[in-house]
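Propose amino acids for all 88 sites.
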């Protein structure tokens, strides 16, 4: 199977936490998985953003109910910051 995304993260967004699962495909095809939990305060969401940037994450997908996704989206898209997760 062809790899389409080499560095992607799935987010499960809740009222008080965001669980992030980052998958990185190595050149040999081996997949490395990291799972981290962040709070939903601005400080914690900025930490999530910095972690994704430090891991060179290129794609992020979210699962959320209600409006809990909105602050996460705002931080990751760079609203109110100098740059978002996307570097293109």
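Proposal:
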């Amino acid at each position: 199977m062809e790899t389409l995304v080499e560095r992607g993260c799935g987010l499960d967004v809740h009222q008080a936490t965001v669980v992030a699962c980052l998958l990185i495909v190595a050149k040999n095809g081996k997949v490395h998985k990291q799972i981290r939990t962040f709070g939903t305060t601005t400080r914690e969401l900025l930490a999530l953003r910095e972690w994704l940037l430090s891991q060179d994450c290129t794609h992020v997908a979210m699962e959320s109910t209600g409006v809990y996704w909105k602050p996460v989206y705002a931080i990751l898209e760079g609203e109110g910051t100098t740059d978002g997760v996307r570097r293109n």
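Residues 7-76 form a domain with the Nucleotidyltransferase; domain 5 fold (CATH 3.30.420.40). The longest helix spans residues 42-54.
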